[in-house]
Amino acid sequence: MATYTDEALGDCQVGPEKGTVSFSAGLHNWAFTLTVFATMYAKKFGVEIDKMMEKLWGDNFFDPKTKKWTKKHTGEKTCQRAFVQFIYEPIRRVIDAAMNDNKEKLWPMLEKLGVKAKLKPADFDLMGKPLMKRVMQTWLPADVALLEMIIYHLPSPATAQKYRADTLYEGPLDDKYAEAIRNCDSDGPLMLYISKMIPTADKGRFLAFGRVFAGTVQTGQKVSFFSFTQLRKYFSCYVGNSTDGVFCFRFVSSAPTTSPARRRISTSSPSSAPCCAWAAARIPSTPCPRVTPSRASDWTSTSPRTPPSPAKRSSRRTPSRR
Q1: pTM, 2 dp
Q2: C-alpha distances in angstroms, 221 versus 41, 63, 217, 247?
Q3: Nearest-CA neighbor of 206 among 231, 235, 226?
Q4: From the CB of residue 217, how many other CB atoms can be counted at a distance below 10 Å?
Q5: CATH for 102
Q6: 83 and 56 in contact (C-beta within 8 Å)?
Q7: Domain range spanning residue 198?
Q8: pLDDT tens digits, residue range 274-318?
Q9: 188 and 268 co-located in one domain
Q10: Among candidates 229, 219, 159, 154, which has minimal Cα distance to 194?
């Protein structure tokens, strides 16, 4: 990553001790960052979470017999690397107990971890690999690890668009549209990038999944979208709110836009099909919950570093198909 370092991006290096790396089993849909275990052990050792994260990675060893931390292995059998002792071994013991159907050993461990109470009644009848998958997904859900890194380590739109505007916008970089994108201006001209169009049962109507880079989408607003369209609103979307970016378009004319700005936002190819399907499914009921403030300028992250709570899950085992 050092090869592509850019001053505008800041420090791009990632490290487990910073919480910017997750360890995952993608096939079984569970993952974790060091934050999860640092939060668990910080109180026990009486240290800050950030300090505990540093101890859980690298050349840090702990001997439970002497209760001392060292930077080198002491040669004692009881001395182990912190990552192995506090993270790898607990995970291994839980997986082994679940795979071998050793529930007499498994349930007490899950109770200490606070996982047993989160299991559903039907989960207690599972055996072998299905039991292991359900236990690990409940204990270390992949969505929580991903959401944690997004919240704490990805820059807000107000910050990121200052240096992304030059690559996002294909027009003159000194016009009002480029400035609106660069400043993440919700009062500026609307600049909306649609990454996915989902046809509906009504002929000529689509659900559009997109991201607002500048301006505000409003009811009845006419926009330039390859052809002239009339926007039908389910809810407003402010600058920077990508999760709320689901709109319904009805084509009323194929005439080209009359807007003086005919420049486009640079094309990208995100893999947005799973989240588009989920968002489209939410349309008929209630608006998607916001994960950002209504305006990007209000974006702050002042809360202590703790993993976000897992969202209520669907009954399906493969969330990517939602």
Answers
A1: 0.64
A2: 53, 66, 7, 12
A3: 231
A4: 21
A5: 3.90.1430.10
A6: yes
A7: 157-298
A8: 444 433 433 343 343 333 333 333 333 334 455 555 544 444 444
A9: yes
A10: 229
